[in-house]
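To whoever picks this up:

The parser on our side crashed when reading a file containing two proteins. I've narrowed it down to the boundary between the first structure block and the second sequence. Both blocks are reproduced below exactly, byte for byte. First block:
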Amino acid sequence: MGYTRETAETLALQILTWLAGNDELLPVFLGSTGASEDDLRAGARDPAFLGSVLDFVMMDDAWVVAACDASALAYDSLMQARMALPGGEQVNWT
């Protein structure tokens, strides 16, 4: 499925909600990004921040599986959604 920016933002919000409810992984995200819980609330409206949430979750296959299973998403949906958000465009080196 190809994602529009709007549908990608919706998916990323689902993943952000999952992340915020994950007591083990949320502190890792906050520590690695320097974000605060207030930043999470503000970032929920920022497509670039939502892209960074997807980037973070995609760093570990186990996180991808857990997030996708929790939201009934295909495992490649995070990558596809990421491509529709700022900074996720496919780079062509030609």
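<<boundary where parser fails>>
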Amino acid sequence: MILCITHSNDFYTIDIVQRHLEKLGYQSFRLNSDKFAIDYQINYTLQKDGEDYCLSDTEQSIHASQIEAVWYRKLWDLIVPNELDQTYRSVFRQEYQTAQQLFINSIERIPWINNMQIDHAVGGDKLMQLKAARAAGLYIPQTLFSNDPAMIKHFYKICDTNVVAKLHGSLSKSMDGNTPFFPTTKLAASDLENLEAMAYSPMIFQKHIVKAYELRIVYVDGVFFTGKIPADGDKIDWRIVTGKPILWEQYKLPEFLGLRLTEMMNKLGLHFGAIDMIRKPNGQYVFLEVNPQGEWGMLQKHLGYPIGETIAEKLVARIKINK
């Protein structure tokens, strides 16, 4: 049995992975993390001869001991029933988060893509990513993380007024980018007069690099699938291009770049990640970031890449290695 941790609004990608697991002879159990407290029955027993955790939905039950591997896609916040009195909501969250963590702890020693703790640590630390990329021989933009108006103005000056700003974390949870998010934005001179807001939220500032095109590189345990987007005028972030569809193109990574990216992913401890890079007009590749839970459905849909199938096959391969 392979556990697939996702959320109730997930579609397409989860179906591809589960269908291919079935073809490979492996059953899977879909856990919608946001509905953990409302759609599942939990039974955890601890006795002198060991522990047992059983999780059930309306169709099937699984014991932690049956799970051979985990595909960790997303972990969303718990849905709290509307009818629950406000007084008890904090207790509801606390107890169900404990139950959820007990379940995760009970399956921590089997293969995961990705390990949840590592996934969260890397996804929540873009500066760690940049350091790992630089250590692997990748070029990274000049970077500042700050809430200091004076330092931000100085950085703007030494970067010849070519600076982009972005949040350290991500707001969007959508494959299409149609949920709230703060896109990477070019910093204008007029913005320097309104930096008091930095007291509420420090941001990442990077030297803006002119691009020939952008790359979304999906890494699946040593295998790469890359989509290319041609530069669209002065658009800084491909997720905010409106009025026309994004024209993804297949792209073959040069061998040297694949080796460096593999080294970086190994340093970070990730088996999966969606990597964003750009290529400058002079041919230089620039690393921007890696999202351990990044979206890839658009590349499979528009370019025909077997990404979901590869995830399933890599999970099965890790089960066999682990035996």
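After patching the parser it read the second block fine. The domain at 115-141+210-305 is CATH 3.30.470.20 (D-amino Acid Aminotransferase; Chain A, domain 1). The first helix runs from residue 13 to 23.
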